[in-house]
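Protocol step 6 of 9: fold each sequence in the batch and record its structure tokens directly after the sequence line. For illustration, a two-sequence batch is reproduced in full.

Sequence one:
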Amino acid sequence: MDRIVDITTDGLHLAVHRGFLTVTQGGQEVGRIALDDIGALVVHAHGTTWSNHVFVKLSERNVPAVVCASNHAPIAVVWPIEGHHAQGARLRAQAAAPRPLQKQLWQRIVAAKIRMQGHVLAANGQEAGAFDLLARRVRSGDPDNIEAQAARRYWKALFGPDFLRDQDAGGANALLNYGYTVLRAIVSRAICASGLHPTLGIFHSNRANAFALSDDLMEPYRPLVDQLVFNLVRSGERDLLPGTKRALTSLSTFDLRTEIGVSPLSVQIQRFVHSIALSFETGTPLPDLPPPPSPLELRMLGVSEPQEEETS
């Protein structure tokens, strides 16, 4: 099972020894994990030092190493340059994807995101009928910006009328930043494993964004992060304590029901990204998106993780 390894303690050193990622502090080993069990490495701490071998061995396994800023948003990613056996052909297909195909894919991605937002609201006792209607109104390329219209309703309905989504704020916003970082790492690894390039987005195209495709393809899954954060806030957790972070990194193992059975989120995302690669190759939009979880599954997302206080 892929695990998200999160480095939050200052002054740690990361190295590789006999197939394991080792973590040492002051010359003493404080932890290790098999490289083959790692889905992504996320670093938030100050003073972290690395062996170059860490990047080499993670890259050989298509595992991204994500470096985060003080607001817990990713600021850099070490990205493997070799991956899928068909990488060359898929990169060419991705780069040559016609604009109509990209717009059709974006239409389906946005509609799926809005429907998931509606299911999150409904699971928490909020009126959500308008979200299904909004999803149906999304046209190719979303020229009417239905995504933004849904977002304006969604945040207020989920977190209250005074809530503002602010990447630089604390509380629930900091938890959202952290959860999205985890999600972005999961999606980025799947993109690499599928032979695609994260910079060539479907919709996002900011010249400064090296992970435009990651940001595109994580959209349908963002409401799952929102639900997880809502559950944490509802239980009184508003700070990024160790237990809170464990709950957020558990997102990759959340089981989703699909037409072919139940599988963890990380596995379903791999199938979804693979379907996007096939869409580029065939010229036909074929996104493999799962149906939303049940209300009970959403309300239980992350709540089983025990919370604990920071220790000095």
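Sequence two, same batch, same settings:
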Amino acid sequence: MLVAYGPDGRPALAEETPQAQLQLWSHERLLYCPNCRGVVHMRGGAEKRTQLHFAHQKGECAWSTEGESVRHMRGKVVLAQWLRDQFPSATVTLEERLPEPNRIADIFVAHTNGTRQAVEFQCAPLDIEEWRHRHEAYRRAGIIDTWIIGTNRREKQEAFIEAILTLTREVLFIDPQATPPRTWLRWPINRALAQEWQSNGPRKGSVPSLAGWVGRLGYGATLIGALSEVGIDEQGRILHPRRATIEARTQLLQSMSTASVPDESTLATYLRQTVDEQTLRGIILPLLRSYLLDPELLRRYNYGRGQVDQPLSAEDIQRVRKASAWLATLTQRGISITRLQEIPREIPFVGPYATFAGYIEMLIALHTSPISS
């Protein structure tokens, strides 16, 4: 356990009380179990390369947690500090015994508005029925419970993981022994969205990993990072800025796929995360405005050959030459042909935006390999 009572009757935290003081109290048998009030002793510490903690003599207390792993003890300390950072005005305690639901919460958070949260860090196997029993007991007591899982169980405990995903639509794994503590945030997505991310989704490494078991719920998306990047709200929901950005971007992409014509503001919003403002305003948006004036221009032009039933007009020839001349001014300003050829790949290949991307590709091809008409 990480909390004991000192001789003054106040809680002494293993990580926050001077070790010399704990050693003295332990030697004088002045440390007491917060549950059974039996004598406990200090164990571990830096010189023993284990988490500092308190332990009973064997079999003294039915509430004893001295058999827990170093990972579990370290995780509780890490998560307690994480919760204090999230809720500076709340009271965050370790190993809080709760008469109702008759449990010891790994970390308990009492908010000033009366909201109560229990955060459980699960590193050992847990039967699904036992988890349901604990979860329901917390909820009956009016306590919001959040279950965070040790990374040692990340590809195990399938039924437990699926139960949490079904309830909350997300699950957080942590490795508290890494420096800094490392996290894996996983949530279910459907097959169509997984395919969309793979082919048209956010670029430059911002797409979540699609690895991870989510059972019958579909595909799993996973974001890997540091615990400091992750937050939690008073309702126990996990907050991740990258996930929020990705999901907003995905919703935008889905709306683009069903649009009737490309929209300038929508395209600008989508591209601003991956394209610099100079390329967006100086190249892509002017090309979009030109395209919207006459979306069929390059199809009619057909690489200078025109259509069988629609020969080239002098106006079309002039407009294509003018566009090519404009591209030439860009290369004179230091924008290489290679960079110009990359630009269509920045456009999401969905709905009418796919046609616009093809328009840019054809125009650049005409500019780099002009056909005399």
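Proceed to step 7 once all outputs are recorded. Observation for sequence two: Residues 314-332 form the longest helix (19 residues).
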